Amino acid sequence: MNMKVILVSGLTFVVLVCAVLTLLWKVSRPTITPRTNNMCLTDKLGTLQCGPLEIKITEYVERVVQEKQDELEKHSRLAENEVRNQMIFIKLIGTELPNKNYDKKEDGMTLIREWQPDKDMLEHGEFRSNHMSYTNGHITVPLNGRYFVHSFIEFVVPPDFSNGVFSATDFRVQIKHSIFRSCKLEKEDTEVMSNIETYLVIDNESLYVGGSQVSSLVKMEAGDKLSIRLSNMTFFHNSKNNEFTVRLVEYI
Questions:
Q1: pLDDT tens column, 25-73
Q2: Which domain holds residue 141?
Q3: Is the domain of 230 the same as that of 151?
Q4: DSSP state at residue 121
């Protein structure tokens, strides 16, 4: 059995040497000096380098092998990142239970905490976050990378909201819907993306349903947190249509 392995290894080496010599002639166009037994080959930078035949062949073989190893490692990393990126995600949807105990921040923005796991994130009735965690309105990311963040918030304007108080000028309500990032090294949270919706409310006789969505690609470090905030909770609607999704798209 060992003899067969040795023979196969020897044959592989012979084939490799033949292939390298063929490449030397066809690709690198080596120049061999008969009297000195020297060979001239181009290096990585394209500069012609001359030296003893055995040394130049050895250098060339080592270079080719290293290039192939680097290429294989690169493809391996890309494949690993692709699989890892597909696994690291979280999707939350809104709850239908009203919560009037809103967490209003100093900047006037209110943290949305009415979230629950989407059915796709449940396994045997338990929350499966795929390495991400959710706590009290915040999603924590596990790795350094770029994350795609998406949020949708539903707004509902009830009938006769203005109650006849606002006439021809109408009643304008402006709502800012934002994604915030917080990290350990920064004292204040950072707004990374926002969308502003303006509602003209008149004495409408029917229910009006609208919404806002915002998306962004955010560079994050392990342990950083993401949250969704609104500037005005007047028309915020507790609904399963609300969505908060985070997915790793590039590991860095």
A1: 444 455 545 555 777 777 777 777 787 877 877 887 788 888 888 887 7
A2: 89-251
A3: yes
A4: G
Distance CA 45, CA 43 (A): 5
Domain of 147: which CATH number? 2.60.120.40
225 to 14, 95, 147, 190: CA distances (angstroms): 57, 21, 11, 10
Q: How many domains does the chain have?
A: 2
153 and 116 in a common domain: yes
How many Cα neighbours within 13 Å face the side chain of 188? 6
Q: Which of 67, 85, 103 is a domain's end point?
A: 85
Lookup: tokens for 33 = 């000096």
Token duo for residue 162: 């203005």
Nearest Cα neighbor of 104 from 242, 232, 193 is 232
**Phi, psi torsion values for 44, nearest 5 degrees:** -60, -30
Taking the whole predicted model, whether its pTM rises above 0.70 is answered as: no
pLDDT at 45: 72
Residue 194's pLDDT is what? 96
Kindly state whether residues 151 and 80 are assigned to the same domain: no
Task: Out of 69, 85, 101, pick the residue that ends a domain.
Answer: 85
- Cα–Cα distance between 240 and 242 in angstroms, integer? 5
Mean per-residue pLDDT over the chain, rounded: 75
Do 145 and 228 reside in the same domain of the chain? yes
Q: Which residues contact 85 (CB under 8 A, 6 or more apart)?
A: 145, 247, 248, 249, 250, 251
The reply to whether 112 and 221 lie within a common domain is yes
Beta-carbon contacts of residue 216 (< 8 Å; ≥ 6 apart): 148, 149, 179, 192, 193
Instruction: Decide: 200 and 175 in contact? Cβ < 8 Å.
Output: no
With beta carbons less than 8 A apart as the criterion, state whether 120 and 91 touch. Answer: yes
